[in-house]
Amino acid sequence: MKYRSFFGLDTPALRELPGASKGTYVGFEADVEKRDAVVEAFRHAWLAYERDAMGDDEYHPISHMGSNLTAAGGIGYTVVDSIDTMLLMGLTEEYERARDWVATNMTFDRDANFNTFETTIRVLGGLLAAHHLSNEEPIFLEKAKELADRILPVFETESGLPLSMVNLGKREGVPDRDNNGLVSTAEAATLQLEFRYLSFLTDEDVYWKKAERVMAVIKAARMAPGLASIFMNPKDGKFVTSAIRLGSRGDSFYEYLLKQYVQTDLTEDVYKDMYDYTMDAIHSHLVQKSMESGLTYTSELVPERDQNNQMSWRLMPKQDFLVCFFGGSLMLGATRTGSLVHPVSRPPLPEELSETGQRDWRTGAELIKTCMATHDTKTGLAPEIAHFRIPTDGLERTMPYAPKDWYIKGARPGAPAPYDARYILRPETVESLFIAFRLTGDQRYRDYGWNIFSAIQTHCRIESGGFASIINVDDVPAEHEDKMETFLMSETLKYLFLLFSDGDVVPLDKYVFNTEAHPLPIFTPTIRTGFS
Ligand code: DMJ
User: Fold this and answer.
1) What is the mean pLDDT of residues 325-339?
2) Of all protein residues, whose CA lies closest to atom 1 belonging to ligand 1?
3) Would the N or C end of the chain have less CB density within 10 A of its end CB?
């Protein structure tokens, strides 16, 4: 295959990327050495968990302990989240032990409240991907169906929006009392890929209908001009005045708008329309440039009331690490909703993309550049939250040592690290690098991925086994927090593995990844789909 340079990769902003240059297209053959190093890291994580905490929901690699999400016992959170990565990596023995654990030990008969969204993306998504990648081992679909049936009551609300929590043992939806019974937009709108695929597999349309109804409610509630607040009310199905952002509680709503369109092979135009409308709004209201180097980032909009109770929206130049999924997502969207031909070239040619497709491609590539810039710390890892400088921030007086483009709020030399300074093994940057690489074949994305992987190995790896979060990305040697998030094995190491694998391993024209990186096949629906 011949690779061409493309305007999106040759913009001045992109040419400034460290290590990037024209003519770096390497194609899609595996980088075997690097791929195998990722497999070794996965085994280092899994074997420690298996040794110390097999079956427990979460793992604490420093104390060598496991723990469960509730006192009623575990639901296979870590095991199920990891299985499809083992299958992709060819770790047969590890896979067989995990599968046997699911078959003999896993139960959802737990009289306790679990988060609907987290349980769906990690456990239901994990079971569905394991079913597909294991050549349809029946146990995984059996368990997936049982779990989905236990979750279904969450949709029995006045509006059809789901409740945030579910008592799996009692099969009851439970309102989130910490947030006045509200559900976050990401929680409500990130169940669809899983429930729709389950419908496809079982031929039972109840799962599809419940998931689709949520999208219809969100569409009807749509806030002008296409933006979505982070909370909704399951009683009336309306948005509640709250922050608007691409980060926590908002993120995967945007991701699944695109992915629902992709999942059914670009057949449901309603999602393309919602996606296009929303991307326009994001470009008009949230996309910003940093002060010094013109880095592209997304701001938040925060509602405020003045003394006369008048409401206004304040632009807050804060970007969560979570937002780093959005670069790759925009580039993928440009080639799916913004393409004039199918399939587009790799990388796409300008004339193959619509004007908005070109815009989204460019913004996506620039956002990846920004996310890489936030890795410019002592550890080479990015913080949980980055703030961007704006002319009115007054930091030249209060924090004269603050860098000119972005900074970690509250970080002061000699002071304890603020919450924002942590790195908790999140995947979003490598997720975008994987997508960008698959869409372009540009070596630079592999180079960035390797830098991040090396930083994780250096600063997060625990010698006795496992990996841990670090509490300050700007502190070396790094101080660890005793927690290995499940998404290290389900997402971060999977995306890195795929980044260095052959391009035909989980190809993007045949699969859609759920938000926890569980690959689900793209399919043509057999039932009536879509709504207007
Ligand atoms: C994961 O559980 C999912 O990717 C989710 O959509 C967002 N947060 C974590 C990873 O950071």
Assistant:
1) 97
2) 516
3) C
